[in-house]
Write a structure and sequence with these properties.
Length: 394
C-alpha cells in the first residue's frame, strides 16, 4: 500500500484530476441544483454530477449486500464497468474451452497502419475469448500485404501466451492500404482461408482498408462477412472513439520523459520545446497538464503560440548549433528552436542551443559578441567570451 501511494501520478491521474478540479470549481460557482451537495466523478470518459447523499448511501450498501450473499447486487453497486471487467476476467481465467471445436466459424485477425502499444494485447484477448466462445482464430501476418499473399496460420490458446504484456505486434503489420488492383487477390485469400469474420486492429489505415473491403461487397462475395475495426493509434485521432489503444501508453511515455527533462531544465534554468506525435490531433500535447503552453494543430495555432508566457525569439545564425540526433525538442525554462542545416550533401536536422540567462525575461536583446564553435566527437563544444566553455548535447 505504501509503495502504491508513493508513486508518481500517471498521465490519467494528472489530466483526470485537472478536469475534475475544473468541473468542481464550476459547480461551486454555478450550482446545478442550489443547496444540494454534489460528487464530481467520471463514468467512462465523461464527467458526471451525482447527489452526495445518494452516492454515500449506495457505497454503504455494498458491505450489507456482501454479508447477505447478494454478490450480484454488490457488483452492480460498483458500476457497469466493474461488472464488465469482472466478466471478461472470469472468462479468460475459466474459459469454456481451450480448443476450437471442429467445423467452427473462422475469425481472422489482422493489423494495419502504424504500431501502437497494446496491439498484442488486443490480438491475444480476441484469440482467447474467440476460442472460449467456440470460434477458430486465424492470425494474418504482415497486414494486408500478408493477406494478399495468403500468409496466415491458425492461432491456438498457447500460441498467444505472453502477448498481453509485450510490446510490438507479433503478427506483424504494414502501413499499406489495399488498392483496387489488390482486391481480387484479397478475396481469393479470404476464400482459401475460409474466413467468416475479419477483425482489423490499427489506425487510420486500418479504417480505410476495412471501409474499402466493405464498399466492394457487391463485386466480391468474399467481403460479405462481418468486418470490425479496433482503433489502435498513439495519435488518438480516430473517429468513433475518444480513446484508442496505445494512446494512454504513449501519453505516459511523454509524461515520464518530460518529467526527466524538466529536472534538467530546472537545474540549468533552460526551456525545452517538446515535439510529440499526433499528426493533426493535439491529444498528446494538450492532455498533459504540466507544460507551460501547448500549440496543437486542431485549434489553428502555430508555434510559437500566443498562449506562451514568454515570446520566442529566433537566435542569431552565428550561434553554435549542437546535436547530431533528431530534432524532437523538449521543454521547461528558456527557449530553444529547431533548425535544418545542410552538410556534406545531406540534410541533417540540428537543434540550436544557447546559454541560459541570455533569454531570461529580464534580459533585453541578444549578446552582441559572436560565439565560436569547435567540432568535437559527437558534440559541438561552444565557447563564449562571456562565459566559461561548455558542451551541449541533444
Amino acid at each position: 500500500g505504501h509503495v502504491q501511494r508513493g508513486g508518481t501520478p500517471s498521465a490519467y491521474d494528472r489530466w483526470a484530476s485537472t478536469w475534475l478540479g475544473y468541473e468542481a470549481v464550476k459547480e461551486l460557482l454555478n450550482p446545478s441544483v442550489p443547496g444540494e451537495a454534489k460528487v464530481i466523478g467520471m463514468l467512462g470518459n465523461d464527467v458526471v454530477r451525482l447527489p452526495l447523499a445518494g452516492a454515500v448511501q449506495a457505497t454503504q450498501r455494498v458491505p450489507d449486500l456482501i454479508a447477505s450473499g447478494d454478490y450480484i447486487g454488490a457488483m452492480d453497486a460498483r458500476g457497469p464497468s466493474f461488472n464488465e471487467l469482472d466478466a471478461i476476467f472470469s472468462e479468460l481465467t475459466k474459459p469454456a474451452r481451450f480448443v476450437a471445436p471442429d467445423g467452427a466459424k473462422r475469425i481472422a485477425i489482422i493489423h494495419a497502419g502504424g504500431l501502437a502499444p497494446g496491439m498484442n494485447t488486443a490480438a491475444s484477448i480476441a484469440v482467447r475469448l474467440g476460442i472460449s466462445r467456440g470460434f477458430a482464430m486465424v492470425g494474418i501476418r504482415n497486414g494486408f500485404e500478408g493477406l494478399r499473399k495468403g500468409d496466415a496460420r491458425d492461432l491456438g490458446w498457447d500460441d498467444v501466451e505472453g502477448w498481453i504484456g509485450s510490446g510490438g505486434a507479433e503478427l506483424g503489420l504494414r502501413r499499406a492500404v489495399p488498392t483496387p488492383e489488390d482486391l481480387y487477390k484479397l478475396s481469393r485469400s479470404l476464400e482459401e482461408l475460409r474466413v467468416d469474420g475479419l477483425l482489423v486492429i490499427g489506425g487510420w489505415n486500418a479504417y480505410q482498408a476495412a471501409y474499402l473491403l466493405h464498399s466492394e461487397r457487391s463485386r466480391y462475395p468474399a467481403f460479405r462477412i462481418p468486418i470490425v475495426a479496433v482503433p489502435a493509434s498513439i495519435d488518438n485521432n480516430l473517429p468513433g472513439t475518444e480513446l484508442a489503444v496505445g494512446a494512454d501508453t504513449a501519453l505516459n511515455v511523454d509524461v515520464a520523459s518530460i518529467d526527466m527533462i524538466k529536472m534538467s531544465g530546472a537545474a540549468t534554468t533552460r526551456c525545452f520545446v517538446v515535439e510529440t506525435m499526433g499528426r493533426y490531433c493535439g491529444f498528446l500535447p494538450t492532455t498533459w497538464p504540466g507544460c507551460s503552453a501547448a500549440s496543437p494543430p486542431d485549434d489553428g495555432s502555430s508555434w510559437p503560440s500566443a498562449t506562451r508566457k514568454r515570446p520566442i525569439r529566433t537566435p542569431p545564425s552565428s550561434w553554435a548549433r549542437c546535436s547530431r540526433g533528431p530534432a524532437t525538442a523538449t521543454t521547461t525554462s528558456a527557449p530553444t528552436s529547431s533548425v535544418t542545416s545542410s552538410r556534406a550533401g545531406s540534410r541533417r536536422r540540428r537543434t540550436a542551443c544557447w546559454r541560459r540567462g541570455w533569454s531570461a525575461p529580464a534580459y533585453d536583446g541578444w549578446p552582441k559578441r559572436s560565439r565560436r564553435a569547435s567540432r568535437t566527437a559527437g558534440t559541438w563544444a561552444c565557447s563564449s567570451p562571456r562565459s566559461p566553455p561548455h558542451r551541449c548535447r541533444t
